């Protein structure tokens, strides 16, 4: 049997002059993998590629889905995952990851991965103008796709052969985190916005908010929790340890905000708080937050999303009676306010309003008005104009609001746009309580 010896690679090549005269020290590269394993290495790397985004075949098609960011229209964007917190300004230092693509190219020409992100001072940096505009339009946790004109990126000449002349490009950008840019020299802890000072004040606000919650003064508790959140977002962090403490306190504050918003029947704001918790990676592993999120989603008629959250909560806490009761309430509410009956009728006309449709609408509105567990109910898409007119008349008759949903808001931020079905993308309207 032939024995195969492992391949060995040197850190640096041999200097023949040194070998023949003074001698040379060999430095072996222990991380080197020879040709026997190179194919397997390539396969393993292929499995762990973590580029942001994917190739874009046609910029012209993509552009129809984007909104203009700057005055001249050189930067256009579409938010894939919404972020949160305060808007950025020149006083921030941000951490970003991104991938850049040319049109119809399968591989990115520029990549910064999330595990090794780029840190940028928004006031003093060498960013291309388009990139600066893009980042300043983002919130923390946001993932967006941008289409850049060559005029705000690499210019008419480009940098051949890597950067083509007059080449527009697409970038997927994720804003990982943002801090207030530290001043030069040591931190002055007497400054009012340092974390050390803010932390103490926020803990006092948190304690007072919990006391108000126990006395059922939810509105006052909300004001204190929100003030604490704003202070933490604006404070100046000295190091990663302070950042970890900040995140833990933000999780407590946002969790209590979700609870209080549900108590005062403000489910949309409760959903916003839960989205912030998802950004802080404290949603899917936290049964309490999932419970509050499901409760809020149920109140606005987002039954499928609510079911997804409450079942996950039940899996994490199988013996929790509150979670079991919420699941039962969700099922009862969905059965009593089943909007799909409006478009499930096989004899439904595309132009006329049938008697059966009118009966379903009247019954749906009656159930909605008498159901104390609902604040809002989204109607299915695809209703014709006559059907919409009848629903408006019925709402006026029953003293209900009937509003158009301006955009397909993602109350569940883990649902990306590519997962939405056609029915969810259609123009939609909603019934709202007049309380």
TrEMBL record:
GO molecular function, one term: Hsp90 protein binding
Origin superkingdom: Eukaryota
Entry keyword Glycosyltransferase: no
GO cellular component, one term: cytoplasm
Keywords associated with the record: Coiled coil, Isomerase, Repeat, Rotamase, TPR repeat
Pfam families referenced in this protein's UniProt entry, alphabetically: FKBP_C
GO biological-process terms attached to the record: piRNA processing; spermatogenesis
EC number: 5.2.1.8
Family per similarity comment: Belongs to the FKBP6 family.
Name of the protein in question: peptidylprolyl isomerase
Protein source organism: Parnassius apollo
